[in-house]
Amino acid sequence: MTDASGPALLVRQADLSDARERARIEAFVAEHGATPFHRPAWLLAIEQGTGQRGLGLVAERAGAIAGWLPLTEVRSALFSPALVSSGFGVGGGVLSESDEAGAMLCRAAQEMAQRLSVSSVELRGGTAGEGWEPITGKHANFSRPLAADHEAELEAIPRKARAEVRKCLRSPLEIVVGHSNHLDTFYRCYAASVHNLGTPVFPRKLFAAVLDHFGEDADILTALHEGRAVSSVLSLYHNGAVMPYWGGGGAEARALKSNERVYFELMDHGRARGCTHYDYGRSKVGSGPYNFKKWQGFEPEPLTYWSWTAPGGTARNIDPTDQSYSASIDLWKKLPLSVATRIGPFIARGLG
């Protein structure tokens, strides 16, 4: 396509096996302040950790990148296939320098879905054009600037919540930070937490792959009680923000308030790393985590996602709050943790 501004704008599939191609896209993502889920590193980690193929579409003008759409081809024996931007992420969607480039990337994603016999395309952010259904009112993100120091951070929390945080800071917990060497500890805490929610746990190798591909842009912070891990969080660092992305605690976490402790300690840790913002992440509107984050003084930022379904196709439904899944969730909670941890990854790899 050409216009009065100069050379033609072209869209092609990215070659994520080419290190130079990945570097160009990483630079484009960094320049435009996008999410960590736009990074080729994320797509490659998801592919390595779940087996779901990482794809992407690049818009170029005269050899320069003008737009980028990261995509994960998510297939499952239980759900309809989908192209997701980005799979296993809470952000994604079209990243472009013009409406023209954005529209071309959306059309190219539709064409790719039909070539791959995929029923639908999901964009977790950005904008989309005609034929795309907006999904609003379901999720909100919570983010705010980090305060200047530890005491200022406490003062930024509303009074009632601040009193609870001060209590958890006095609890007899040791805080440790690590990387891949702390993965087993993290995974035990996380698996126990999601099992209590009735949710299948993601494969351990997914977290290993994210730590590997993100390098210094990811780490694990854990709370220990008498030498035992009781809560742990795997965080991403991107564009000046610390983002606690996956986390949880075992049976002792509630009594020890260790989950609250690790999230507050992560604020100090992020500040020490040079971060300026704390991105608490996405929560379902009206859920327990949503209300907890508001109670801690974070303001919800409504998120808009987009969905396109191929003619005659069926969009997948992986919403755990859907009533049709309530019986399955109740049954999953009753499984022994060892059994759920063993079979959960085979289901969860299709939930991205």
UniProtKB/TrEMBL annotation:
<dbReference type="InterPro" id="IPR038740">
    <property type="entry name" value="BioF2-like_GNAT_dom"/>
</dbReference>
<feature type="domain" description="BioF2-like acetyltransferase">
    <location>
        <begin position="160"/>
        <end position="294"/>
    </location>
</feature>
<dbReference type="InterPro" id="IPR016181">
    <property type="entry name" value="Acyl_CoA_acyltransferase"/>
</dbReference>
<dbReference type="InterPro" id="IPR050644">
    <property type="entry name" value="PG_Glycine_Bridge_Synth"/>
</dbReference>
<dbReference type="InterPro" id="IPR017469">
    <property type="entry name" value="PEP-CTERM_FemAB-rel"/>
</dbReference>
<dbReference type="Pfam" id="PF13480">
    <property type="entry name" value="Acetyltransf_6"/>
</dbReference>
<protein>
    <submittedName>
        <fullName>FemAB family PEP-CTERM system-associated protein</fullName>
    </submittedName>
</protein>
